[in-house]
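Sharing a chain and its predicted structure for anyone who wants a worked example. Both blocks are below, sequence first, tokens second.
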Amino acid sequence: MILPYLNGVLRFKDCPITWLLFIVNAFVMIATLSDLISAQESLDKALKDDYYVTSQGNFYAQFIGDHQAHYSPFMRELSQRAMGGDGEKIKLLGNLALRNEKFMTEALDYPFKGDQVARGWWLEKVQELQEIQDRHPSYILGLNVDHMSLDHWVSYQFVHSGFIHFAFNMIFLFIFGCYLETILGGLAVLVIYLGSGMVAAGTFLLINGASSAPLIGASGAVSGLMALFCFLHWRIPVRCFYWLFIPVKGYSGFVYVPAWIIFFLWSASDLGGYLGSLAEFGGIAYTAHLGGEAAGLITGVVLFVLTRFRPLPPQAESGTSVPFDSDKAA
């Protein structure tokens, strides 16, 4: 893995907007953590109930068979195998059903065939799950088919699925946000963060469509900051910390890499993730990352055309950041 090492984490007075963005993200994470854990445990418990998952898989297979024009060849094949008695495919469909907006919207009133006692029990469980989702922070603040208002296009950027998701996004926010704020200003960083996040969401919805599962996280916004940095410093060597397998001596160190290579590695990983995964199994919103990266590049082009901007790395104040080894390195 390779991690750009720019100015380090500057003090609040040097990059207040980046710090405020972090504080808002951290506040939302802390404020929603209890509800997040409780609601997620309830969802996980339901999905471990084999009878519920099997019942849902059978009904979903039937629903797909009745609405084949709305589903991909892959989903139609799963449906056929499930209806043929393939238990593994039935359970798979049972888990995938919660992501499908059309099925979850129409399921309560749909005239499913088969065991009506099982249908009645399953419908009660579906209503219970919907009540759990109504108090789940990811569903309340995230962007999904039931929450498409403008405020959710902003709020989804500040809610995360867990600490690891939060931590990785905040690391890259500090790496690129602190640096860009010293050369572009705080207002620019705020606009780029929110704007990239909104473009990321729009890209996700355009390619993947609205889903019952919420889109959450600052990844799209941070991808925009990264892409803008790489554009402004396209051929400048950037000091990066790398490690192979584990960050220990002999397998880690510092290396200077042109910014365009950082962008290529980041975007190629997202593009490969998107092309190598099925939309039905999507856990990582690769298209949102790509949308954020596109927003950052477009912002860079606009800055270049309008101002012919050629930023040089700011000189770090003693004790506030890590100094540069070269006046040509970012």
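Comments welcome. The chain has two domains: 2-35+146-307, 39-141.
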